[in-house]
Fold this protein.
Amino acid sequence: MVVMVTSPSQSSSYRAPFKGEVLRLNAVAGPPQDSIELTRAGGVIGRGSTCEVKLVDPTVSRKHASISCQDENWLIKDLGGANGTLLNEVRIEHPSILAEGDRIRVGPWTLQVGVLDTTSVAMMTIDDADESNRVRRLSPAQTASLARHRLNLFIECAARINQAIDEFSLWDSIMVSAIEGSGFGRAALLRTDANAESVEIIAYRSLGGDDRPDDLSRSLIRAAAEGDIAQMLSDDQPVYGQSIADLNIHSALCCPIMVDDIVAACLYLDARGSEATVQNDAASFCQALVRIAGLAIANLRRRELIERQQKMESDLSAAREAQRFMLPESRGTMADMPYAFQFQPGRYASGDLFDVIELPDGKVAFALGDVSGKGIGAAILMAAAQSHLHSVLLRSGDPTEAVNAVNAYVLSHSAVNRFISMWVGVLDPSTMEIVYVDAGHGHWAQCNEDGSARSERIAAHPPVGIDGDTQFDSLVLKCRAGDRIILMTDGVVEQPREEDQEQFGMDRALEVLKAFKIPRDDVEGLHKAVCDFAQTDELADDTTIASIMFPSI
C-alpha cells in the first residue's frame, strides 16, 4: 500500500490572496528573527534604520522591498536592490499579490506569509556525526550518465512530472518517480536551512505504508542544503552509531531540488531492512530527476505569479475604464467659465472623484472627492458616489442636499472603514458667489487675478460616510471676476520627498499657484511642481487637481 501523508488543503497549488488587517511574516530560514507583523499601512523591508522591517545583513539593500495593502490585497514590490527579492523562489519584477503560505526570500532570510503551514510537519533530524564516514558527496562527473536500459523509465518519469498541473501533484509525481526509478522504499520532500537541525516535511510516500519519518540523517540533509547530492553507503559490518543501526537503514540519498540556483526543497530517500536492493545508478537517476523537477517547479511558480499579476491588471483595467467613462472632458468651458482638471492614479486605480456639471439655471456644480483606501474597492465606491452626487446635483442644484444624500448612500452601501472627503460647490457667474460644502476635505485654494492665493485649510464638516447623524451645511464664498477655485486631493499636499520624507504641503501649493492666471496652467503647473519635488513621476498616492475660473471683465 502506498500512503501519502498530507492535508486535503494541499490538493491544489492555487492559494487565495492573503486577507486580513494584519500581515504576519514568520522566518522559516536564515538567522534568528522574531515574527513580523505589518498593519494595513505596510512597510519597507531592508537594513536601513528607517525600515519598518529591519533585516541587517550585507546582502540586504538599505531599502530592499516594500509590502503594502491596496484595497483588500497585500502586495510586495522589489525596490531595485542588487540581490533582488524572491517570491516562492521566483525573482519578482512587478508588484505581486501575496497569498497565504507564500515564501519571501530577502538576503539569507526566508519569510513565510501568514501562520506557519499546518499542512506540513516540522521535526528534528538525528545527529549522525558518527556515521559521517558513510556519507559521500557525489560530483557531477560521477553521476553524469544514465544507463541506456533506464532511459525509457526516466522519460516516463519526466513526462509525469511535466504533466503536473499544480504543486501538490508535482510533489507527488517526483516521489512516485523517485521510488520507481531508484529502488528506495520511502521518499520525503522537505525544506530546511543550512544547519539541517530541523526540517519541514512537505510530503511523504512509503511503499510499506508506515508513518511519516522520524529518522532523517542530518549529515545528508546538510549536504543537500548546500547544493550537493549526498549518499549514505551500505555497510556490511555496521559499527556506526546506534540511531542508524537500530533503524536498520542500509542506504539513503538526499538530492537538492534547485530553482534558479536556490535550493527550493530536498528529495530524501532511504531503504532499510529487507527492502529491495537500491539500483546501482540511483544517484544518477535521482540527480536527473531533481533537475527536471526544479525546472517544472520554477515553471509552475512563474505561471502562478503571472496569473496573479494578470488578474490584478485585469481588475485594475476594468476599474480604470469605469473611471474614464464617468469623468468629464479634462478641459472645457461651462457658463462662460473655463475649467481644467488632471488626475493621476498613484499605484493602481484611483479613488479620487471629480465632476463638473452645467446646471439648468446657468450655474455650474464643481466637485472633488477622495475615497479612503486605494485600489479597486476605492475606485468602485468612487464611481458609485460620483454617480449619486451627479444625479442629485442635476435635480436640485443644491450642494447641501447633494452631500447629505451621498452621506446616507455611502453609509448604507459601503464597508464600515470606507469614507470620502469631499468638496462640492455651485458657482453662480451672475452673483459671483460659490455656495459650497467642505466635508473633511480642506485641500482647496482661492486665487485672484492680482496674484494672491489663500486657503481655508480646515474643513467645516467631517468626511462623508462616517456618521449618519451629521447634517452638512453650506457656506458662501464671494468672488471677483477672474478668480479661480483650485481643488486638490491629499496626494498633492502629502506627497513626500524621497531624501527626508518632508511633504509638499499647502504652502508650496499656494506659492506655485500665484504664478498662474488660467485653469490649464494651474493644473499642469501644480502637477509638475509636485513631481519635481518628489523627483519622480510615480507619485505615492492618487493625485487630482481641478481649477475653474469666474469670467474676467
In short: The longest strand covers residues 249-259. The radius of gyration is 32 Å. Residues 282-326 form the longest helix (45 residues). The mean pLDDT is 81.
